Amino acid sequence: MKRFKINLVFAFLLSASIGCQSPPVPKQKGYFRISLPDIKFRLDTTSCGSSFELPVYSHIEVVKSDKSGKACWFNIRFSEFNARLYCTDVPVKNNLESLMNDAQELVFSHDMKASGISRIRLGGLETSENRTTGVLYHLEGPVATPIQFFVTDSTNNFLRGSLYFDQVINADSTAPITERLLSDIEQLISTISWD
Fold this sequence. Notes:
Blueprint: H1 2-19, E1 41-45, E2 50-55, E3 59-63, E4 72-78, E5 83-91, H2 96-108, E6 116-125, E7 132-140, E8 147-152, E9 157-165, H3 175-190, E10 193-194
Antiparallel strand pairs: 1-2, 2-10, 3-4, 4-5, 5-9, 6-7, 7-8, 8-9
């Protein structure tokens, strides 16, 4: 009988210690902390003849293709962010309206997925001897390219660009990166000049 009481007390203490713990709760998913580099720019020149200020954490990649015709293609690589700005530099030969329409069609082809498209008109930028105008688009939502732009001197040169990340992105988690790249691209546009 004494042994039964000891076993009963031991069973009661064991069940009390197990029963007092809260049930396991899965931890919520966390995101990596994004640390952005310092804002510093350098003047760079492409093989196309355009020059502009780029962030120091980027570099220009030359794209060679037989399909380019008179257009010159290059990419601006943002390795830290796993992103590329695909750029096309085209000479203007009485086709400015057509080039602008093509650029806008490429932006608004993402309209079905975009939750919003912000347009920043850039007009009369006189940062060099070339007077430039253009439009910068910020596409929000689950789109393939969150930033697109075009800039022109209206007489000889037209530059179009689209930013793509090298992996599928979550727009909420990459928002700080997209905002930084948006300001970097604004700097590129405001400092562009052609030979």
